[in-house]
Amino acid sequence: MNVLAIVDFGLTERTGGYKRNFEMMRRLRNLINLDILPSVRNVRLAIDGNRRELVSLLESLNASPSYVLDLIERVDSVDEYLESLRQNKYDLAVVYSNSSENVRLARRVSKSMIGVQLQLEPFYANPSTLLRIKFRGPTGRAAMKFKEALEESRRSEEEWLSLIRGGHLNFVISVSHVPLVNSGLDRLLDYDVTFPANSIDEDIFKYRREKEDYAVYFTRLMPEKGLFEVPLIWRKVNDRKDLKLYVIGQFIDPQDEEDFLRMSRRLNVNLEYLGFLEGRELYERVASALFTLYPSHYDSFSLVVLESLALNTPVITYDTPAIREIYSGVKGVYSVKEDNIQEMANLCFKDLEVRFPEIYSSWDKVARAELESMLKVVKK
């Protein structure tokens, strides 16, 4: 089977979603005849100074047409790149991005059925869902961010609905039901939820170690991930025990960093910001923690939770739709009603057990399941 994949690799960002895209391409190329084209965003980043990084990444996968690599090396604009692409015959095309411009890119290159692989919703069908997620943090800025997100969601919704009406988007595969339900795409297109849909680094288990007397909060540091609830929860914990919390990750907004650190000082909590960590440095820190604090409002499939479990570290989190769908019944994931910071603080003093769900231990299994999802939807 000949498949076209339009893929966003992040390039200048490191997130679990971009890592998943890379791991899928590494394996799907061995299961099908695969042509990989970078996303429009990746080409834009390449032109802006990251050509060598993108070409090297694509060369490592060895699944991109050679003329595409040449184009990335020499084009001066995205328009020049798009106009130089050649149409080819594919059995289907899959877009690994939630940007509509990449669906249009797929249609430019292929006349086949086109699907999108979702890890996040491209828009929100119900503004109340967006409000619950986005209206977080200092009130004035939260209101502004919610307004901006709502406007962007409405623009994106019209773009996606236009693609569907024009027959340019035919199916969806997703890591969970959450992106499908939040966007309403489950009512508009054929879809399948891949299972298992995610995995972890195969060598992560070797970092397990004895526990030390601290906890961790690691994620993309933004209000939607519970950033401004963390000091409030930790104040309640510190009222009972002088336990340290290490905060790990990258702030998306510099103003959030300033507000968060100021709030932490004002509440006089035992908290230390370590910055962005990855690989061994991150894994060793998480593995030694008593637990991971994760008051997130915004997930489709939390890799923070999965990595914590792999490191034998229990997780205290909110009972959000994604947590219920993926981790219900998993030993080591302890959830409370969303926004209940007192109960979350109480859980920090419970005896917490962990057992890693083995179904998520192999990227090879995920790749085979992903291919099955594609075939299942195409055959409907």
Question: What secondary-structure arrangement, pairings included, does this model have?
Answer:
Blueprint: E1 2-7, H1 16-28, E2 33-38, H2 40-61, H3 66-74, H4 78-84, E3 92-96, H5 100-109, E4 113-118, H6 127-134, H7 139-165, E5 171-174, H8 178-183, E6 190-193, E7 214-218, H9 230-238, E8 244-248, H10 254-267, E9 271-275, H11 279-287, E10 292-294, H12 303-310, E11 315-318, H13 321-327, E12 333-336, H14 341-347, H15 363-378
Parallel strand pairs: 1-2, 1-3, 3-4, 4-5, 5-6, 7-8, 8-9, 10-11, 11-12
CATH level 1 name of the largest domain: Alpha Beta
Instruction: Tell me which CATH architecture of the largest domain applies here.
Output: 3-Layer(aba) Sandwich
Main-sheet strand order equals 2-1-3-4-5-6
How many separate domains?
2
Q: What is the H/E order? A: EHEHHHEHEHHEHEEHEHEHEHEHEHH
Overall geometry comes to globular
Broad structural category: alpha/beta
- State the helical fraction: 40-55%
Number of strands: 12
Largest sheet: 6 strands, parallel
Low-confidence stretches: none
> What's the CATH topology name of the largest domain?
Rossmann fold
How far is the first residue's CA from the last residue's CA?
Answer: 17 Å
Q: How many helix segments?
A: 15
How big a fraction of the residues is strand? 15-25%
Mean pLDDT: 96
Provide the gyration radius in Å.
Answer: 21 Å
